[in-house]
Specification:
Blueprint lengths: L7 H14 L2 H12 L6 H12 L19 H10 L5 H8 L3 H10 L2 E4 L2 E4 L4 H15 L1
Antiparallel strand pairs: 1-2
Helix pairs in contact: 1-3, 2-3, 5-6
């Protein structure tokens, strides 16, 4: 038997189905029996049932206050190519996102700040060769 791991939207659609038939606590118990550790929490079930009771049957997540706006790495890369000396705060302001979001994306892109400039953590081949040449010059 294959291990089916449900996606979030699948679980939300199942919640909508059970909303018509059961109460949130019963639904939660059924989902735990069926999906085990992948089942939504009891609180999550209650929140979805509250939403369905209010007449909102859209199972997609709503944009919530406090959730950071999504942006493309290309936007961040373009800003860095324009000016690699921009601070985290300035980058966040330009992209209209939280400072921590920019920091996480920079880390994921392999960028670090050295001498107030954003540079790749891993050196390119030409940079390593340049450093080797400089070291050789100092040894003479």
């Amino acid at each position: 038997m294959s291990e089916f791991i449900p996606k979030k939207q699948h679980l939300q659609e199942v919640l909508l189905h059970y909303f018509i038939l059961k109460k949130s606590a019963e639904t939660h118990h059924l989902l735990v029996d069926i999906y085990g550790e992948h089942a939504p929490s009891k609180t999550s079930c209650k929140e979805w049932f509250r939403r369905f009771n209010s007449g909102d049957f859209d199972v997609r997540d709503k944009e919530r206050e406090g959730t950071s706006k999504k942006f493309e790495d290309a936007e961040l890369q373009a800003l860095l190519e324009e000016d690699s000396c921009l601070s985290l705060d300035r980058l966040a302001k330009e992209l209209n996102v939280d400072r921590s979001t920019v920091g996480k994306r920079l880390h994921a892109m392999g960028m670090v700040q050295k001498e107030e400039k954003w540079v790749p953590y891993k050196l390119k081949e030409r940079d390593m060769e340049r450093r080797l040449v400089i070291c050789e010059m100092f040894r003479q």
